[in-house]
Specification:
10% strand, 7 helices, 3 domains, four-stranded parallel β-sheet, alpha/beta, Rossmann fold
């Protein structure tokens, strides 16, 4: 192949290739060292605070996180819209974990209300708690960027999952790259214990095979990836419309 390249371009191209290879090699070394550092210095969840607050906790990932976190013996404060579901979940958690030494409390709240004054009821319940971790598991966004919280000794982690077996995704069976909600929850808890070693680790995908999947996506040319994604989404839409027509 080199014989087809003009002699004047051979050395520059080799140098460019060497720089690119060195960059990737250094990134791999950095990633390995960072993983080792996170595992060695992983924190107990109670070191952040005694209580973990979980919103959107009565189904899917939020529910699996609650059932996994109770094994860490942290206090749980559960928030959801359905009081009956919260009460039933609390009873089931205590029955399944009879050696649990923490406390479980809950509050009903509908995040679709859109009024900040409606948060006062929750504020009164949690202001006396030693809250170490807040897991925001409801689909609510903000009209402005999140403020920098490091100066207040608050770490922010944005976990980015790909497909998971939940009612929301409508995927019923796990596969290589599609874990159950329980498997994903265990990975998310490990990620919480590791903390944020760098600012770039704020946004991450806790599940290892999801990270592999993202790396594979990034290796594909953008035009090809966009085309494949569009075809996949169109196929999903067609299947959904077909189900709607059958229902009618």
């Amino acid at each position: 192949m080199i014989s087809f390249i003009p002699p004047l371009l051979v050395k520059p191209l080799l140098y460019i290739g060497l720089v690119v290879a060195l960059k990737h090699a250094l990134y791999i070394v950095y990633w390995v060292l960072n993983c080792l550092k996170c595992k060695i210095f992983a924190r107990r969840l109670r070191s952040y605070g005694d209580t973990v607050i979980i919103t959107g906790c009565t189904d899917g990932i939020g529910k699996s996180l609650a059932y996994s976190l109770i094994r860490e013996n942290v206090n749980l404060f559960l928030i959801s819209r359905n009081e009956d579901a919260l009460k039933s979940m609390k009873e089931d958690l205590l029955v399944r974990n009879r050696n649990y030494k923490g406390q479980i409390d809950y509050a009903t709240f509908d995040y679709n209300t859109g009024s900040f004054t409606s948060y006062r009821g929750i504020q009164e319940k949690i202001e006396k708690l030693d809250v170490g971790i807040l897991i925001n598991n409801v689909g609510v966004s903000y009209p402005h960027p999140l403020i920098e919280l490091r100066e207040h000794n608050i770490q922010v982690q944005c976990h980015v999952p790909l497909f998971i077996v939940t009612k929301l995704s409508k995927i019923r069976k796990p596969s290589t790259f599609v874990p159950t909600a329980d498997a994903y929850a265990k990975s998310a808890i490990k990620r919480m214990k590791q903390g944020n070693s760098t600012s770039s680790s704020v946004i991450s995908s806790p599940y290892f095979l999801h990270r592999v999947q993202i790396c594979l996506y990034n290796a594909v040319p953008k035009l090809l990836f966009d085309t494949m994604s569009l075809m996949t989404l169109k196929a999903v839409r067609q299947r959904a419309l077909k189900k709607v027509r059958k229902g009618d």
